[in-house]
Amino acid sequence: SGINAEYGDTFTMFGDDNGSFTLNKPGGVAVYPEKELLLVCDRGNKRISMWDKLGNPVDTIPLPQHPDCCSYAGYGILVVGTSQGEVLFIDLDCKQHVFTWTNKQLKNPGFITGVAVDNRQNVYICDPKNHRVIKVYR
After folding, report:
1. Around Cβ 69, how many Cβ atoms within 10 Å?
2. Strand order in the sheet with 123-127
3. 38: alpha, beta or left? (left if phi > 0; alpha if psi -120 to 50)
4. Residue 65 and residue 86: Cα distance in Å, rounded?
């Protein structure tokens, strides 16, 4: 059935005092359409929190770094930007971190404020410390 809300209504739906699922400094969000899940970068808890469309907690995926932003890449893969300037690739079905992209040529790697994935699986990364957007070709 879902939530009955009028356009413009606001309400807390995810993470407000949910025990072990309570969010700590949430960052980016993405949707996993095949499973109808909302994915939240739970920065303070170093994890991805997964929520169903009714706002019920489903699961968490622990991460080695603090997630700041994320984008769903398709095929069950979530791309996560971190404050350490790396991009993590997460397999949502296996619930594990499978690959880390690090640009060794960055002189001053900074935090990543945005990631996006196009239909060819190229990844775009916002690198505000170096005033640029990086494209990582598939």
Report:
1. 24
2. 114-117, 123-127, 132-136
3. beta
4. 9
CA nearest to 123, candidates 95, 75, 83, 87: 87
Name which of 6-20, 22-36, 106-120 the model is least confident about.
6-20
DSSP 68-100: EEEEEEETTEEEEEETTS-EEEEETTTTEEEEE
In 3D space, the residue among 119, 129, 125 whose CA is nearest the CA of residue 81 turns out to be 125
3-state class of 128 per DSSP? helix
pLDDT band at 29 (very low <50, low <70, confident <90, very high): very high
In the chain, DSSP assigns E strands to 26-32, 37-42, 47-52, 57-62, 67-74, 77-82, 87-91, 96-101, 114-117, 123-127, 132-136
pTM listed for this prediction: 0.81
Round to whole Å and give the CA distance between 68 and 35.
22
Residue holding tokens 């770094």?
65
